[in-house]
Amino acid sequence: MSFAACKIMHCPTGIENCAAGFITHSAASLTPQIHTADVDSDWPATKPLGPIPNLVVSAGNVLEVYLIRVEQASSRDAAEVKRGGLMAGISAASLELVCSYRLHGNIYSMGVLTAGGVDDGRGRDSIILSFEDAKMSVLEFDDATHGLRTSSMHCFEGPDWFHLKRGRESFDKGPIIKVDPQGSCAGVFAFEQQMIILKAAEVNSSLVGEDSAFSAGGASARIESSYIITLRDLDVRHVKDFIFLHGYIEPVIVILHERELTWAGRVSWKHHTCMVSAFSISTTLKQHPLIWSAVNLPHDAYKLLAVPSPIGGVLVIGANTIHYHSQSSSCSLALNNFAFFGDSSQEMPRSCFNVELDAANATWLTNDVAMLSTKTGELLLLTIIYDGRIVQKLDLSKSRASVLTSGITTIGDSLFFLGSRLGDSLLVQFTCGLGGSNLPPGIQEEVGDIESDAPSAKRLRMSSSDALQDMINGEELSLYGTAPNNAQSAQKTFSFAVRDSLINVGPLKDFSYGMRINADLNATGIAKQSNYELVSSLIDSSPSLNPVNGI
């Protein structure tokens, strides 16, 4: 006789990883997720929406793929108010679940291997998942089963790979996945000193099966081979983060690492211990020469963010500073009074307000504006002011306040997703323009408050210290920057609206079980189990008790 020692009563709902990619359809295919309610209406022509990718999220051992359904506004439903109101000709946007899987292990990291611009954009992306200690799975969408299937699996554990651990049995970090923007390869940092390169297969390769090559959605990106780079051989130790850069013919990986370790008691004597090193990855020759590097970065630098084309380069985010580095230029921005430059002869520009960016998440809204989500829930907008490929300075502004995020990703050119372990994850629409609204006379564009229709305890919160939002009532944010090769400054206006959300029932702070009020004391057998109930308390800004009966 056997019985289950552990039973999962509710699947995890706290989002840990999120990414966007064309999983179920390609970028060149028609976008059936866009619906127009009235074709022959007098509604003004708005900017056409580009291809909208899928949203892929993971929560513990649960993997889910969503489709974004967008409804364009018309004159017939102008009076109908939906969540988020009317913005840029869109009246509603929602998340539609395509497939969901409960895996036999927790997902540590996730990436999307892009098909790139080959085959006229008819290729589809694939999902790469990593599991402890060094296991990777590559998934693609199957039109026949309308679900995901495994295209390849990679494992670097067991007796043949003991030498990669160098005598260690446990590691603080699991395998972290980063993908080349051109889709040439993916990098997996494992065992805190090994870089695993997963080379993507070419479109005309035999690894792209005929069943996927002639499917309606196009062929999916696949992994052809893999090899290992020992970072010790490159004199790279104490790696904190890595990222692939935009704008290079071959993949270029930038690694943030620390030359000498320091700690709080030695910061006054040894503080700028980090550096970034850029390596060109040749997946054919398996060579990786160093092309440029930057030293004297603060010890609290922890995250890299690749700057999109045409600017290029990388942002180094620290707790007290933000640095930009590329082959041609570099600049810095101090965030608070704890920031200081290594060379006392140079003055570092300072932000107009104090903020700390440790444990922050970031994504790009445009090619020169990044959005940062801080540990306190604030949303900040970082503008890169540049001329050509030369970055002149960085400008940081306050925007909204949000849930405490565990991940953030941009979906297409008008949506982004805020994933959270502590609150509800939100799908938010944004618009960026230089002028006013172009709606018909007599109709007012309704940009709903970003907190509307969300639970009061888990919604996007306004920061009480944000004086800028008090002036504009949380409706718009103006950024000032210079366009490339243009001396006059242009005003950029960003507007936000919450379109959909994923409910999070946790995390649990404590729980207890006992007899129900209307319990049947004479019950026997299975019916006796229904006499008990489990009462749990959630970590939230407002107290709540959620009973679960029948346990």
UniProtKB/TrEMBL annotation:
Domain of life: Eukaryota
One Pfam family here: Beta-prop_RSE1_1st
Xref: InterPro entries: Beta-prop_RSE1/DDB1/CPSF1_1st, RSE1/DDB1/CFT1, WD40/YVTN_repeat-like_dom_sf
Location of the RSE1/DDB1/CPSF1 first beta-propeller domain: 93-431
Protein name: RSE1/DDB1/CPSF1 first beta-propeller domain-containing protein
Organism: Datura stramonium (Jimsonweed)
